[in-house]
Specification:
Layout lengths: L3 E4 L5 E6 L2 H12 L17 H15 L4 H6 L3 H9 L10 E6 L4 E2 L2 E4 L5 H10 L16 H8 L3 E9 L4 E12 L4 E8 L6 H18 L4 E7 L15 E12 L2 E11 H10 L15 E4 L1
Helix pairs in contact: 1-2
């Protein structure tokens, strides 16, 4: 199998929109160049250095839409700032926040992608044999031993990364691009959630980030997903108009006493770029995912 090799360093950012408290926290951190971990709810503004406090308040004021001095003076903690942003009204700025998809640091909102580490393997094995998820993953309900699992984990993989919460440093899911077909300029996308990680919006952010990374780094035309019919609803949180159905095998999977279709879906490069850009106008210097790096294949 020939694998593409990206050249150049992805240094641009894409802008998306998402509501929520953690998005506001990430925006505060990005706008005032603060460590995300320092902006926890209980952090007191008076404990920040003078200039750091000014930067945080300035970022809050911009997100709020121009806060009055009385509002700024009333804030004591970061948590109070986020409470105010959660209840922002149209005259106080748009409560739908813009979040940055950063391919240089592989972050989006409150999540990041990173390489696998040794402590990840027990979590992934547990997910692969868990009754709640094993039938959705590559083993389709069978229970491999640990040695078989580790061998299969790397089989036919193009690139795989863990998605984790940036604030808590907690793994959320394994995201994978696999079965690359250089002649067709395509590959497949898969993921499995880590047991106990229930924030589907964060995991969706990780999928969007891996899609952007794949399109930016290699000359892929489209990325496929092979999905059991009972699993298609889990993709509804992806950006609208980005997933096309390309084929269907009728009554292909037996699950919970019934037959289900096998659905072949595809995400096209141009659809993905359009969907990401449609969320909001890009920041200065931002480019579509397909333009972030000049990809080649070897």
């Amino acid at each position: 199998m020939e694998e593409g090799t990206g050249v150049g360093e992805p240094s641009s950012q894409l802008v998306m929109e998402q509501t929520g408290r953690e998005t506001s926290r990430c925006l505060l951190a990005e706008m005032c160049r603060a460590d995300l971990a320092r902006l926890h709810d209980g952090a007191r503004l008076d404990d920040f250095g003078k200039f750091e406090r000014v930067r945080v308040l300035a970022a809050f004021s911009e997100l709020w839409g121009g806060a009055q001095p009385a509002v700024l003076e009333s804030l004591v903690t970061v948590g109070e700032m986020l409470d105010a942003l959660d209840t922002a009204t149209p005259e106080h700025g748009d409560p739908t926040r813009r979040i940055v998809l950063d391919l240089e640091n592989l972050t989006i909102g409150s999540v990041r992608l990173r390489p696998l580490r040794e402590p990840d393997f027990p979590l992934l094995y547990e997910a692969s044999v868990s009754p709640s998820s094993s039938f959705r993953w590559r083993f389709r309900g069978s229970v491999p031993n640990r040695q078989q699992f580790l061998q299969m984990l790397e089989a036919d993989v193009f690139v795989q990364m863990m998605c984790e919460d940036r604030l808590a440093n907690v793994p959320l899911s394994l995201n994978v691009l696999y079965s690359v077909e250089p002649w067709a300029q395509s590959c497949y996308l898969g993921y499995i959630g880590v047991p106990g990680a229930s924030d589907s919006m964060q995991r969706t952010g990780g999928l969007v980030l891996l899609l952007a990374y794949g399109f930016a780094t290699w000359p892929l035309r489209k990325i496929y997903l092979e999905v059991p019919g009972f699993n298609v609803a889990l993709l509804e949180s992806l950006p609208r108009d980005v997933v096309r159905e390309e084929g269907r095998l009728r009554d292909h999977y037996w699950h919970e006493g019934a037959w289900h279709d096998k659905v072949l879906l595809a995400i096209y490069r141009e659809d993905f770029d359009h969907a990401v850009q449609a969320f909001s106008a890009p920041t200065a210097g931002a480019q579509p995912a397909s333009a972030v790096a000049e990809p080649t294949s070897t």
